[in-house]
Amino acid sequence: MNKGILTALLTIGLAQFLKIPIKKVKTNKWDWGTFFETGGMPSSHSAGVSSLATFIALKRGIPTIDFALSTVFGLIVMYDAQGIRRQSGELTIKVNELDEELERLAGQKDHHYHDQKEEKLKERLGHQPEEVIGGALFGMITGTIAHFLTKKS
């Protein structure tokens, strides 16, 4: 398999796994489902694209078109992860609260139906800037390690 792709995919998996103990520290509960969630620290999006760009920079060189492509696409992914996706997540929070707010404004009694509702829209879609930076740094570390592990003597 392509070593660059393998590096990026393994980094994404490791970043997703790291979210579990980080969430444990924050909430004092183990939540293994965190592995399959979007958002959180570190950004696996940022980690994956940064590891690939770092691996390419070390393997092929910074002046190459490979590095240029991986860096530009990586920056777009990181911008999207913390910008557009985070904003859509914040919008989703408002949508989830809208029904309850309409009932309150109409003067209806709150029967806490919405608190028990199983199908809410997913609110955690994107990343805070520090999560993107954390993912990028993690990716640079894993990309560097992968380069040295795959380097021929």
Description:
There is one protein chain. Helix 1 packs antiparallel against helix 2 (44-60) and helix 2 (44-60) runs antiparallel to helix 3 (65-82). The chain has 153 residues and is an all-alpha fold. The mean pLDDT is 84. The chain has helices at 3-27, 44-60, 65-82, 84-105, 113-116, 129-150. 29% of the residues are buried. This is Divergent PAP2 family protein.
List keywords for this structure.
mainly alpha, 2 domains, 6 helices
Unreliable stretches: none
Approximate helicity band: over 70%
Summarize the helix and strand pattern as letters: HHHHHH
Number of helices: 6
Rounded Rg: 20 Å
* Structural class by helix and strand composition: mainly alpha
> Domains counted in the coordinates: how many?
2
Which geometry do the CA atoms define? elongated
Sheet with most strands: none
Q: How far apart, in Å, are the first and last alpha carbons?
A: 20 Å
